[in-house]
Amino acid sequence: MKLAPHLHRIGNDIVAVYLIVTDDGVTVVDAGLPGHYGDLVRELKSLGLTPDDVKGVVLTHGDSDHIGFAERLRRDHGVPVYVHEADAQRARTGEKGKVEMPPMKLGPTVGFFTYALRKRAMPTKYVSEVVEVHDGDVLDLPGSPVVVGMPGHSAGSIAVYSELADAVFVGDALTTRHVLTGRTGLQPAPFTDEPAEALESLEHLSGLKASWVLPGHGTPWRGSPDEVAAEVRKGAA
Questions:
Q1: Per-residue pLDDT for the chain (237 aa), expressed as one digit of tens each?
Q2: Which CATH number goes with the domain that contains 114?
């Protein structure tokens, strides 16, 4: 799905993956689930491209529903996988602390796990080798993505900002569709390590000039990043 001249999305409102497309190649932001690889290949083919045109995968964090096909691109096409140093171990092994079980409703919860299984979520394909990044880094990749530290959902959660794409990719720093309740609108994401810290980190989006705020779960949101923190707090209330 083309969202803007340099911006594409694959997946859906349950799990989404984003592409920054330029004349110099493609940057993939998050890698969804392993079964999204076929969606990636089809989207690239529609653009006259192949996986060899992907220059890097940038992970907003190391959870299993964001690292899906990253290892396949790394292994088969030599694509480097970037993740914040604090989530590097998470991406390589799945190691993380325990979080409280969030509220859920039967229908959306079953839908989420059914979709995940259909996209071959099990077994998780961890990333053998990663390139560690830090807050403020500007990556030498198509779209010149900027790393914005967003600790809270995980210690190494980041947002990825691209002026060219006119977008900030926020991973699970927030959601516009709660995968376990089906509730829509800007709100905190479930399975967050440190909820209070995650809300505080939303202030880091202020000042970014973008028309799109793009979560890993839910519909793309059109609006200024300056408005996000207040809107998510309303959603939390």
A1: 999 999 999 999 999 999 999 999 999 999 999 999 999 999 999 999 999 999 999 999 999 999 999 999 999 999 999 999 999 999 999 988 777 778 899 999 999 999 999 999 999 999 999 999 999 999 999 999 999 999 999 999 999 999 999 999 999 999 999 999 999 999 999 999 999 999 999 999 999 999 999 999 999 999 999 999 999 999 887
A2: 3.60.15.10
Q: How far is CA 234 from the centre of its chain?
A: 22
Quote the domain boundaries for residue 144.
2-236
Enter the pTM of the model: 0.95
DSSP 155-206: TT-EEEEETTTTEEEEETSSEEE-TTT--EEEEPPSS-S-HHHHHHHGGGGT
- CB of 61 closer than 8 Å to CB of 84: yes
Q: Are 51 and 23 in contact (CB under 8 A)?
A: no
Backbone angles phi, psi at 196, to 5 degrees: -65, -40
The number of distinct structural domains making up the chain is 1
Residue 64, CB half-sphere, CA atoms under 13 Å: how many? 16
